[in-house]
Design brief:
47% strand; Jelly Rolls; five-stranded mixed sheet; 164 residues; five-stranded antiparallel sheet; 1 helix; mainly beta
């Protein structure tokens, strides 16, 4: 078993895997008669237009887990990006791994701050949705369309993510 220490989710640390979705910094625009700040265009969405895909919004209800948490399964979606937007202000665990010739490399663990979501770039290896508190409700924006869009990989030995 390999132990992982989760790191805080920051745009710089996560950039090669996707986008951090939050309302940090100053709004890009002020709208609605000055009553709303718009943090504009925060994700690199990609739904594989050549394969007939389109954006869809689904609701996921995942069972919360606790740290330490073990895993051996990662997956990726070759036809589209996938954004996870928590419907509560609870942190969640994000597992990602670099692609190494079509297979996942050594995984990394990130712990979100309250109010952060993520967008995983198309083809990014990632762990399953792992809320750490109830409710485990997330709005998920991903590709809806024909053709296979899921690849799974089981590591030969599990990894365990320790508390931060």
């Amino acid at each position: 078993m390999t132990l992982l220490h989760p790191q805080p989710l920051t745009p710089a640390a996560f950039a090669r895997f996707g986008d951090v979705l939050d309302a940090s910094g100053s709004p890009d625009r002020i709208i609605n008669a000055g009553l709303c700040g718009r943090f504009h265009d925060r994700a690199r969405l990609d739904f594989g237009a050549e394969g007939g895909g389109r954006a869809g919004i689904s609701i996921f209800d995942a069972v919360p887990r606790a740290l330490p948490c073990s895993f051996d399964l990662v997956e990726r979606h070759p036809e589209g990006s996938q954004a996870f937007l928590p419907m509560s202000l609870q942190p969640f665990l994000v597992i990602v791994a670099p692609d190494e010739g079509g297979r996942p490399g050594a995984p990394l663990a990130f712990l979100t701050a309250p109010g952060q979501g993520i967008n995983l770039l198309r083809g990014t290896w990632h762990g399953v949705l792992t809320p750490l508190h109830s409710p485990g409700l997330f709005a998920v924006v991903d590709r809806i369309g024909p053709g296979p869009n899921l690849e799974e990989h089981v590591y030969p030995r599990p990894f365990t993510v320790l508390p931060a």
